[in-house]
Amino acid sequence: MPNTVRNPVSNDMIAATGYSALKAIRETRGYTIEELSLTCGLAVGEIIDIEDGKDADPAKLRRIASALQVPEEELIRVPTEENRPTQQ
Fold first, then answer.
1. DSSP string of 25-68?
2. Residue 28 to residues 53, 79, 81, 85: CA-CA distances in angstroms?
3. What 3-state DSSP class applies to 19?
4. Architecture of the domain spanning 11-77
5. Based on the number of CB atoms within 10 Å of its own CB, is 59 exposed (0-12), middle (13-18) or buried (19 or more)?
6. Considering the entire predicted model, what is its pTM?
């Protein structure tokens, strides 16, 4: 059963190579991918694709953020002006 206590997510976890913010938050909250799938109504494969960086659909990320009870900004990062890719 998922942990409903709001445990802080360590920046070290998120910064680890190959470790997505979603995965860090999901695991900190005590959810398996299957439990998160049932809670937010997305397929397991959709969540895996998001964690692997293959999908970044804002609507899906909002559903996940709501299920995990975290602000949408934790999962939906809008690049700041200096971090936006430049056209060459």
1. HHHHTT--HHHHHHHHT--HHHHHHHHTTS---HHHHHHHHHHH
2. 19, 25, 31, 31
3. coil
4. Orthogonal Bundle (1.10)
5. exposed
6. 0.67
22-58 pLDDT per residue, tens: 999 999 999 999 999 999 999 999 999 999 989 889 9
> Residue type for 35, please?
E
User: In a 10 Å sphere around its CB, with 0-12 CB exposed, 13-18 middle and 19+ buried, how is residue 78 labelled?
Assistant: exposed
Pull the structure tokens for residue 26: 């999901």
Cα 59 from chain centroid (whole Å):
12
Domain boundaries, the chain: 11-77
